[in-house]
Amino acid sequence: MSETLAKQLALVIDLNVCVGCHACVTSCKQWNTSGAAGPLADENAYDANPTGTFFNRVQTYEADTFPNTQTIHFPKSCLHCEDPPCVPVCPTGASYKRKADGIVLVDYDKCIGCKYCSWACPYGARELDEERQVMTKCTLCVDRIYDELLPPQDRKPACVMACPTGARLFGDVKDPDSEVSVAIRERGGYSLMPEWGTRPANQYLPRKITPAFGDST
Amino acid sequence: MNPAWSVIVFTTVAGAAQGLIVTLAVAVLLGLPLSAGFVDGALICALMLLLAGLGSSFLHLGRPLRAWRSVAMWRTSWLSREVIVLPAFIAVVAMWWLSPHLGLRLATPWLPLTAIALAVLLWYCTAMIYACIRFIQEWAHALTVINYTLIGLASGLLLATTLAAVSNQSPLARLLVPWAFVLTLLAWTSRTIALRRNARLKPKSTLQSAIGVRAPRLTQKSMGMSAGSFNTREFFHGASAAAVRHVRLALHALCFAVPAALLLIMLLGAPLYLLPLATLAQAVGLLAERWLFFAQANHPQNLYYQTVS
Residue B25 class from Cβ within 10 Å (0-12 exposed, 13-18 middle, 19+ buried)? Predict the structure, then answer.
């Protein structure tokens, strides 16, 4: 099952610098609703209970107790697992992991909207589009990163381009010299819910606690 | 999880039809005296239940017209395997029902034997759809397979007994009552063991492992949206703890206790007209049982969706 690919594109998210501005959320929505993955439904957009399809969310957590309380802004999208549990359960083969670069994708023309893949993802990374009734998820902007009409420096996922603090790194985690591999190696990159053996490709960089000025410890 | 009525109806109705067919097949194989009219009626009943279940399963799909595609991934997906076995089972039951009408004398042991094999395979496939998801700890256990099989068998056996009684096959019904009683008790026992196991489960995932922060105190301040999403609709049942308790009570009482008690007093000589009552009670109880099966499944993704803001 767990086939190791030569190339695995992924995001590395630096929790030290994410300020929770949601620019990655809106840029993701804008790019993907207009591109190959879209349109992404918005229901009751101007009503009391707006809801819609998003590939990326920024959540906020609070850790520890006063006076050591920390606010953690936590972006969450598909982790493009190296052993994705959502792929083998798909009855139609609409859910698949690309051998060329490890991106986990949904073929919207084959998806029957049974939602089984979303049950089989422990991270809640997949959302059923309520209008199209097919499963959707982060594509790592597959329709951007290989687009030769874009200048090379723009061939990155929309969320990475939008992040004002550089909290999102993008690259091949199988290339030991890539920016993401170096960051994971040197700054203690970690996986979410390692207990399930999904081997997420996306990693997070842990926060470094900076002592207050004048604090000797 | 948020229980889907389409799946609840499909799994309970198809499960009972499978149990009915297994009962009928075993009766044929044992050479019990079955009237042709009773066999015909029971097969029609099973077929109608199976077709109703199949129809209900389509309601679960966002794109039902593409359902044919779901046979493709039988090598890896239990759902795909179920999609193959279900029509095969329906075809065998239909063949069984049709053969006397077409004047065919199909070799007796093979049709019932194939029907039994496919019924058991279908229970296995259906249950494995849930049991194979390793991080839904309530489901990822052999008890899921055992319960789907035993509850299907018990409900099908009770249905067969009731059908025998209402079609004036009292001797056959009297013969089946003790077996229906035993199967109901067996299913009740194994379902109770599963409920106890679920109550004791310690979730492997915590908020700490979900976001990878080891702080002893960690709370969510915002899930990142104000009015819900697929993640909040699909994975939370939204029922109060009291409502869940009532469903559990309905499960024990209607699915098992009432039918078992009625079967027991019929075993001691009470009239068989209590059988439809037992079947009716169990039909409602089965819905409660399956609703709770889904509602109790605690998906780890829920850790990420605890606080709106």
Answer: buried
